[in-house]
């Protein structure tokens, strides 16, 4: 039997904490090992909790989430971090990801995506809810005139993330560029590229480009 994923929660709103406890604690896969309502308590207690995953707010009293992330970044991290925030500004997203977070969710989508985020982060993956992912993608390549963001929906057999990667690969962005700007590992980009080749049944990036043009994901 697999051991449960141990989760520590931190937010200064009791109602949100209660909601997260209800959602996550209801799963037999998870165990809530502690909660905190300010940054100081979080720093002191989370490490000792033996948590696998820390789910934390950015706006907290005493010490805010950025201070907390900086504190943890200076130490060997005992857990992976999911950030919850009411804000989706790209500058803030970039800052927290550079400080070691593995996931960023807006509070509006937390209830819908938190279980999926915990499972992905536990597997060592990065995870963003849809609104955050779109914000990151648009900040990187959204103004590129070759990207057709309003093309027809062909019900392609691809995930939203695969479509994003396909567009960027088709525009000749390197795997390294994509990994840096989308906050995903180079290995993840390569995995998506290989999966795209198999799904689309082509042998090279040239085939990916032709597919993207055919389905009006990019403009020739």
Q: Would you kindly provide a written description of the structure presented here, covering whatever features stand out?
A:
The structure is a single chain. The chain has two domains: 5-129, Rossmann fold; 142-214, Arc Repressor Mutant, subunit A, CATH 1.10.10.10. Helix 7 crosses helix 10 (205-214) and helix 8 (175-182) packs across helix 9. It has a six-stranded parallel beta sheet, with helices on both faces. The mean pLDDT is 90. The protein is built from ten helices and six strands, in the order βαβαβαβαβαβααααα. It has 220 residues and is an alpha/beta fold. The chain has helices at residues 14-25, 39-46, 65-73, 90-98, 107-122, 130-141, 160-170, 175-182, 186-200, 205-214, and strands at residues 5-10, 30-36, 53-57, 80-85, 103-106, 127-128.
Layout of secondary structure:
Elements: E1 5-10, H1 14-25, E2 30-36, H2 39-46, E3 53-57, H3 65-73, E4 80-85, H4 90-98, E5 103-106, H5 107-122, E6 127-128, H6 130-141, H7 160-170, H8 175-182, H9 186-200, H10 205-214
Parallel strand pairs: 1-2, 1-3, 3-4, 4-5, 5-6
Helix pairs in contact: 2-3, 7-9, 7-10, 8-9
GO molecular function: DNA binding
Domain HTH luxR-type: 151-216
Modified residues (4-aspartylphosphate): 57
């Amino acid at each position: 039997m697999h051991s449960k994923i141990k989760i520590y929660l931190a937010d200064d709103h009791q109602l949100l904490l209660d909601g997260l406890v209800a959602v996550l604690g209801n799963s037999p896969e998870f165990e809530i090992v502690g909660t905190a309502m300010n940054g100081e308590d979080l720093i002191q207690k989370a490490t000792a909790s033996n948590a696998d995953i820390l789910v934390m707010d950015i706006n907290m009293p005493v010490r805010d989430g950025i201070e907390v992330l900086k504190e943890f970044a200076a130490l060997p991290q005992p857990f992976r971090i999911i950030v919850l925030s009411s804000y989706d500004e790209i500058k803030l997203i970039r800052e927290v990801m550079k400080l070691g977070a593995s996931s960023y969710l807006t509070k509006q989508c937390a209830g819908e995506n938190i279980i999926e985020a915990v499972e992905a982060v536990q597997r060592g993956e990065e995870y963003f809810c849809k609104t955050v992912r779109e914000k990151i993608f648009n900040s990187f390549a959204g103004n590129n005139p070759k990207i057709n963001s309003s093309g027809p929906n062909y019900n392609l057999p691809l995930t939203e993330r695969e479509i994003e990667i396909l567009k960027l690969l088709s525009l000749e962005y390197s795997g390294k560029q994509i990994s840096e700007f989308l906050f995903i590992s180079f290995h993840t980009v390569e995995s998506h590229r290989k999966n795209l080749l198999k799904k689309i049944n082509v042998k090279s990036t040239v085939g990916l480009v032709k597919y993207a043009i055919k389905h009006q994901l990019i403009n020739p």
